[in-house]
Each structure stands twice: as C-alpha cells, then as structure tokens.
Amino acid sequence: MTPTTNNNYQQQQHQHPELPKSKSGSSNVNFNPFEITLNSSSRRSSMSIHESSGSRSNNSVHEVSLSRSGSKAVPVRYGSKGADSEGLSTSQRELRDEDARLVYINDPEKTNEKFEFAGNSVRTSKYSLLTFIPRNLFEQFHRVAYVYFLIIAILNQLPQLAVFGRGVSILPLAFVLFVTAVKDAYEDWRRHKSDRVENNRLASVMVDGKFEEKKWRDVRVGEVIRIKANEPIPCDIVLLSTSDPTGVAYVQTINLDGESNLKTRYAKQETHGKEGFGGVIKCEKPNRNIYGFLANMEVDGKKLSLGSSNIVLRGCELKNTSWAIGVAVYCGRETKAMLNSSGAPSKRSRLETRMNFEIIWLSFFLVALCTVTSVCAAVWLKRHKDELNLLPYYRKLDFSEEGEVENYEYYGWGLEIFFTFLMSVIVFQVMIPISLYISMELVRVGQAYFMIRDNRMYDEETKSRFQCRALNINEDLGQIKYVFSDKTGTLTQNKMEFQCASIWGVDYSYTKDSMEGEQFEHSVAVDGKVLRPKMKVKVNPELLQITRSGLQNMEGKRIHDFFLALATCNTIVPLLVDTPDPNVKLIDYQGESPDEQALTYAAAAYGFMLIERTSGHIIIDIHGETQNGYYPFLNEPSRYDHYRFNVLGLHEFDSDRKRMSVILGYPDNSVKVFVKGADTSMLNVIDKSFNMDLVRATEAHLHSYSSMGLRTLVIGMRDLNASEFEKWHSAFEAASTAVLGRAAMLRRVSSIVENSLSILGASAIEDKLQQGVPESIESLRIAGIKVWVLTGDKQETAISIGYSSKLLTSKMTQIIINSKTRESCRKSLEDALIMSKKLLSSSGVANDAGGSSEATPLALIIDGTSLVHILDSELEEQLFQLASTCSVVLCCRVAPLQKAGIVALVKNRTSDMTLAIGDGANDVSMIQMADVGVGISGQEGRQAVMASDFAMGQFGFLVPLLLIHGHWNYQRLGYMILYNFYRNAVLVLVLFWYVLFTAFTLTTAINEWSTTLYSIIYSSLPTIIVGILDKDLGKRTLLKYPQLYGAGQRHEAYNKKLFVLTMLDTLWQSLVIFWAPLFAYWSSTVDVASIGDLWTFGVVVLVNLHLAMDVIRWYWVTHVVIWGSIVATFISVMIIDAIPNLPGYWAFFHAAGTGLFWLLLLGIVIAALLPRLVVKFVYQYYFPNDIQICREAEKIGYERVVESGQIEMLPISDNPPR
Question: What residues sit in the active site (predicted)?
Fold first, then answer.
C-alpha cells in the first residue's frame, strides 16, 4: 500500500488518507495498515502555540490547537452535514449552466466579460438627492388630512375665495411637512453615512500577483482577496487558502445568524498553500439561502465539489486565524447578507390609519354642510334677485363712474353658488384640524420620554435604557396580537450550563444535600503555570469523587468513557486567554454549538480537560495522568502527561440523523466510536444485546430532565475492529469525493459506524433563559397575545427552549412538519388541518355535553425547508389556517427573509397587529416587516437595534412595554383623537347654525381672532397634557391582570361606534350652545359681537369641562392647563374687544355686565353636558367593562377585592378576525 498526502480537511468531504508507511520510511512487508494509521501523525499540525498577528494588537487570545513540531496527524472526517443537506437539498440535483455563473479565479476581466455582475457597493438608504422631495412628500401625503389641507390652501389663493391671508393659509401645512421632512432627512443621512463608511473600507486584493489595497466598492467578482485576523469580510468569498496548515479558518457570524460562537470554514487542499491561484468556479446564481451553497471548482483539471463550509459570507469576521485568502463570487447587492435585507419600510400607526377613515367621513359631512349652505344660498338669491342692487353685499351694479355702469362683486347666480360652496369649505375647514397631527406628535414625544425613564425597562447588566426610535407608532404597542420572537439572544442568554447526567443507569443529579451542586473548576499546573477552564461548572460531589478514583472498577471505567465522549465528540477549539496573573491562563472553548461548549466545560470540571485539537488528533488531560511530558502551547516539557487520541473520522450533527460521531484511535491502537445525539435517534441504534433495564432507566432519567426543561443528549459508544474500520474508510472516501448526492451518501456512510451502540448515559443542559422570560410569555399569553418563535436553530433546540420558557407545555399536541418537497408539504398540511379540526370539534362536543374538558392546545413546529415550498405558494393559506388554530408556532432553521415571510403571512391575512423582536442582523427583515419592531441591545451587534422602532435590553421588558405603556398610549391617543374631532366639530356646527341666519353669506359672529386662537390657546394644551399624563389604571393593576390588555385588541378606546356617539353628542352640544343664547336674546338689542363672545365662551368652557369629566388622574399641571385655558380665553377675549380697530369693540364688557350672560353660560354647560353625564353613569354602573371594574377596585383597595374574588375578566378569543 502506498501513502498519499493529498487529503482534504473539509466539513463535508474529508478524505481519509491511505495509510502511510512505517516511521522508518522503509517498506514493511508485514505492514499492518490499521495499526500504523493509529500511530501516524499529521504533517499539517507542525506549529507551536502562537499569537496571530491580529491577536497581538487587539487581544490576548491564543490558539490551543497545535501539536509538537514535526508531528503528523490524520485528517479529521467531517461528514453528514453540509450545505448540500441544508435548505433546498441542492446536492440532489446537478448545477445546470442556465442556473449557474462562472467565476474565473484571479481573472475578473474574463469573469465579467460575458456576465454583468454587481459591483460591491451597497446602499441601505431610502432617498437620494433627486428622489428625496418627491418620495418624502408622497409618503407624507398618505395622510388624507394633508391632502385636504393642501386643497384648502390652494383654494384660498383665489381672489374670489380668499377668506384668510394667502400666505397664512399655507404656513400650517408647510410647517408640518417641513418638520417631518427634516426628521426623515436626518435619519436617511445617517444611513448614507453608514453606507459611505462601509463602501470605503479597504480590502487587500491581488493585482498582478501582488496584494494591493482597494476600496470595498471597487472589488469585483473573480478577484482574489486576502483578509487578516479580526477583519470583516467585504463580499461572499470561496476560501482558497488560510494561515492554518490544515486550511481551517474561524469566522464569527454574529451579523448573519445572531450566533457569537466561532464557525469553522475550510479551504480545499488543492488550492491551499499555493502561491498562484487559477481555475474556474461554477456556482449557483445569487440567492437568499445563507445556510446553503452549491458549486464546483475545476483546478488543474480536477473537479472539486464546494459547499457551505467553503464559503464565507459578507458581514462575517475572521477570528483566530492570521489570514485567509478567497475569491469573490458574490458582490454588493448580490451577497446573501444584502439579499436578506428587505429595506427600511415606512411605518404608520394603525390608529392613524383608522383615523383616516373617520377623516373621510368628516369630509363627507363637511361637504354636506357646504352643499346645504350653497343650496340655501341659491334659493335665497333666486327669491331676492330683484333686491340685490339695494343690498350692500350683493350690490349688482357700480354707479361710481359717470356714464358707465359695471357689474360689481357679483359673478352671476351659478358662479355665486359655486363660490359659496368653496368659501364654505374654507370657513368650515377646522372640522378636520391640522393641529390634531401636531398634537399627536407632541403627545408621542411626551409618552416616549416616560417610556425611556421607566426603571422597569432599565437593563442593569448593560447599563442601557429603553430606546424609542420611532415616535409615530407608540399607540400600536397597545394593540399587539402576535409577537414573533427570535430565540438565541432574545429569549435566551445564549449561555448553556451543564446541569446533571445519567451514567449507566445512575442519576447523578444535584440534591438538596449538595446545595444543588457546587461550582468547581479543574486546573492543570504546568511548571508554575496554571491552566483552568474559563467557565466554572456545578458538579455533583459523588460523581466527582468517582472520576478521581480512576479506572479501578467497572463503574469508574464507564464514567471515564462518558466524560471522554463529552470532551472529544465535538468540534470545539480550545483558545488560551491571558489573565492579570501571568502564571494563570484560561482555556476558552470556542465552537459552533453552545451545547458543545457546555459539555466540554463540564468534562473539564470533572477532570477531562480538552487541551488541544488539530485536524488529526485531540489531546485530553485526565487528572494529570498520561504518558509523555510535553505541552506544545507552552513550548516546554512538563512533569504531567496527556492522552493523545488520533481523530480518524467525524460525522457532524445533521437534522436527519439527529446525532454526531467521532472515531478515535487510542494510544494502544484500538479504535472506538463515540456518538451523541437526540434520544429518538440514539435509542434506535442500540446493540440488540444491550441491557434493556439500563435503557429503560436512562429513558426515565431523560423524561425527568426534559420535564424540567433541560436539553438532553444521549451518549453511546462502540469498538471498531480493523475490517469494520476499512469498510467505513473506503465508503467514506467514495462519498466525500462525490459531486452529486454527497450529503445523502455521507449519511449512509455514517450508519456503518453509528449502530450496535452501547449506551453510556445521558446529559442535561440548561440553556440559560433571560431573566423573567417564562413569566413574561405567560403574561403575554394571558393578555391574549400569541407568541411565535422564529429561529435559525435546530428543531430540537427550539423545542427544548419552548419547554423551558413555558411556551410549550406537556398538555399541548405538537404538529411537526418536516418536508422536503411541495407535495409532501401539502400532504402534511392537509393531515394537520384534519387533525386540528377533529381536536377542536371533540372539545366542542364535550363542552356542549356539559363536560369540563377544555380545547386541546396545539403547537405547530415547522422547519425552514418546508417553508421554502410553502411561502409564496398556494400552500400559504393552508399554513395560515393551521397556524390560526394553534396556540404556539415554532419555526426552526429559517433564513432571515423567511422570518419576514412568516410575519407577512399573518400580516396580510388578518387585521391583527404584529410585533417582531430580535437581537441580530438576521432578525432585521422580520423587525422591519412587522407593524412594530423591537431590537434587543444585547451581545449580537446593533443591526437589529438600528432597524427597530424600539430597543431594550431584555425580552422581559416586553411586558411593561406592552401591558403598561402600550395600554396607556393606546387609551390616551384613542381618546385624544375622538376629543379633537369633537372639539372642532362643535365650533364648526355653531358657525354653521349662524350661517342659516345670515342669508348664507358665510359671515361669522365669532371674532376671526378667536377662531384662530381656538386651536392654539383656548383648547390645545389640555388635550396634549392629558394625552401625555392621564392613566386609566395603575401599573400594579395592569401587570396583575394582563387580560386588561385586551381592550386595545378589541379597539375599545377608538372604534366606529364611539365615533358615531361622539358626533351625536357633538351635535347636541352645538345645538344647545347656539340656540339657547339665540332664543334668550331674540327680542333684545344685543349686537352680533356680544352674542358671538357668549358663543365663544360657551364652546371653550364646554370642551374643557368635557375633557375634565374624562380625566382619571389629576396632576397639578392638569389643573393648570384645563382651568388656565378657560382663564386665558376670558383674558384674550377682553383684550381683543378692547382694541378699537377690531370689530366688536367693547362688546364683551357690555354683555358681561348683565346677569343673563352668566346665567346663559351656566345653563349652556349644564344642558350640554347633562345627557353625556347620564349616559356615562348608566353605562359604567350597569354595564361596566374590565377597565372600569378595576378602576373601582383601585379606589376601594386591592386586598378587599382580590380576597372576595370580585374581579372577573372578559374571555379572550383565540380566533383572529379575517
């Protein structure tokens, strides 16, 4: 047998080498390939511990993955998981020319000769200099009222219709548009600034055989790029070579999937280490699937298969690798990161959207008033057409010039009617006040201030307060029906902690006697230098004592194998971290899976410390007892020994097998396979002769751990003889080099060794939830809010978190959909719908029969591959119908844009409000798609925060944000809108009634200055202050009874019924205000200005007392603005009437000197408000809602009410409106 050294170290296709010759280098006739393989070393692991160039300047992290100088290692076997098994199962089909692009390595001219590939410049801004004004105005004029005021301003420019000054009529609308445009321009300027910084970064690009610096925006597809440690990746590149001898590169993908753990990527051995680069890559066209990559590469006439482990995406950062070289395959807007960015949409408040419909109705009402006025004017003109020459206003002829008679201020009957209509529109325009929008903006600013200052939403760990980044949707927080949440970093801290273990049927859980476990850390003293794990782990004292006793008995041997499996069956890379003490080093275990990190730290705590990992071997320190005395990372001999295991193969975890395995060569030339995985997959591959009592005991422990919400894994092992190993080896080589169907072949190969296992035991890990997450989810559920979790994690992980967060319960019936094709998706959905209908109907029958059974809650669990076939197809409707019947929905392994698709699925089919919350760049599309986007300012970058409407430190803050502030904001804004409609309609109707008595000439009794000041001084401040400060209920009540949040979901504060009732009340009050003084002064000699002042005072006093009746919480500032507005009105009217140049000089002083004036004012207020007072009393006393009941409970005290059980909330419906 001849040796070969051309081996690939790939995540999906690592080729085991043919076995080398003996160490002497001479031919060995009695050559035992199996034995020599176990003693061989890798040529590619000949570096001692070092600091990368990037690490020296920026941090003190060292890589502990290197062996002694001159040693060799067998390359690791990575199989069963790769790009080909992800997403669309692309490994099952051939890459056709029409679906591919050709990238010529280091030849961008030829690459772009036929295809016009995108440049590397990116743009996330919404506007440009040319598009800002038209697009911004277009977005602003989505507000119907703005269109209305624009028309009014245009009409007022006509000389025949100029009721107010031309410039003055434009100023209010222009001011509002300008302020909003400045705000939008500033926000977009920040995006432009960020784009410039990003596009002007420098990258090292190969030009004529040398690397030269070039701006990111100038990078082209086909160019070879060199990235240094800690540098971000400028575009999507296929790795060609790295500083690691094995071709490994470690990258951090925080900006893509929200994970802070390091991921491993690999360069092909055919290109690794070469000085010149050439060849051609045939890859799929740009797509959004960040978990998959289908391509092949031709180098030196050899065709190689590429997968997701060979590509590094834009937005990642190179870590713990000195440098990496790759070729650009996707640039700019074609990169996967940019394709998953859906852009920043313009969000508008749902309440404001509904308000537009009421504004349209008010516009119709306004048109009706104007029509009545113009029709009546037409009739009056017909009846008095012969008298017009004698009337001052309607004088038909001008006799001022001798011999000439001209028409004067009269345009004929038809035009007079038309002008009367338009002038009516201008006079009655206050029916739809532009001040309402300004008031709403001011109220939102005030509400945002109190949200920011709320200590309930202050994160002590990060010292960060709540951020209100969008001021126009505060009230939407009170109407949320669906919450779409990311998992990693949002529900969890992404910090796993080993809790307990079951080994050979014995449960080593923590007991009360052991104080729920002691924190312990194992350390290794090496010539005065101490190595210890970075993280402490709680240990079971009994189990720790047994591990220290060694291999003295069978129990010790089994526990030894168990922890050896935890330490070796993973892809963890140990890194050294400096401490303030130069003699102490911390070992930081980095890897793709937090679970693996937790298990490795647990093994280290029990004395099985992973010291070093290379592509070919693993070094484990086992309580300091080993064989040769050398620690390569310290470059010096040691009095301690270590165990060195050759890694002969590794099959990584995949969602089909639900397990992973590592094949280890022992120092005594024996070979063992360690396997870990989900219980459902592991218990199916047990050796038939294995003791079933042990299996049943382990299963019982697993059930116990799972009921506590812990993440469980089963650990197994088996011995391999030489023939079994050779069978696996040859099959693995054939599968690894396959271009088509590689993932499926690797899964079949794994079954050769992953069978006939002996169960060593099971582990239990807790994924540390953020503080208060289970309680928060329970509160949201009681509030009638459905929580959906959308995560890129594996299904098992998501389900486990679902239990620990109380999102899933043991009472729920789980519907799991994992389908690979559209037809199987359709069949799964149909079956699930039938089952859900049966469960619902059976519970309904039981209820009808008088039984006490409740509807069985359903939980839908679906993966990203299934969603590929469902979203944007006819199956969407079926998925929505199914999801609507479920209490919980979990979406696993979903890409960023699929998250946005799920949100759109609900948003487009129901009027319910949606909220999305996440912490990483992979959540940006979801956050922007939802009605309300919330970013978690945690450890996963700030992309989610920058794209969000609100930002906070923890998921638990969602409860006070929604249940307290959301409720308050909605109640306040809903009342404020109705009150503003009422406030302005009262004045308009009084003006209209007066028009009926003035020959429809549109003259007014109310002074024009008072009309102008009405919305500025007389009645504006009270509604703003009440909108900011008023509270219908206290914080304690809102948190104690989450059901109260349902008032916003049912639109109790603002709906059509309330609008109609408000307008009817307005009509009554206007009649009282106008007709009472008119009848009282009918036969008197009082002038128009005097009765106009009475009408002014009547309106102002009435609307302010109307507001005072509805105020729940009084503050000193509330008293000041309400009573102060009434006082300010009297002062203003007296000043206006004291100016001789203005009409109505001294009118107030004449009228106010009589008792009738004040008696009428008092009578107006009583008569106008009495019906409202009576209806309010009857409604609240005989038909109270939840809020009114709890308000009374607050008055008489919580304890008495709670003890007597008097508070009973309305039931919450789970069926969303269609």
Answer: 486 (4-aspartylphosphate intermediate)
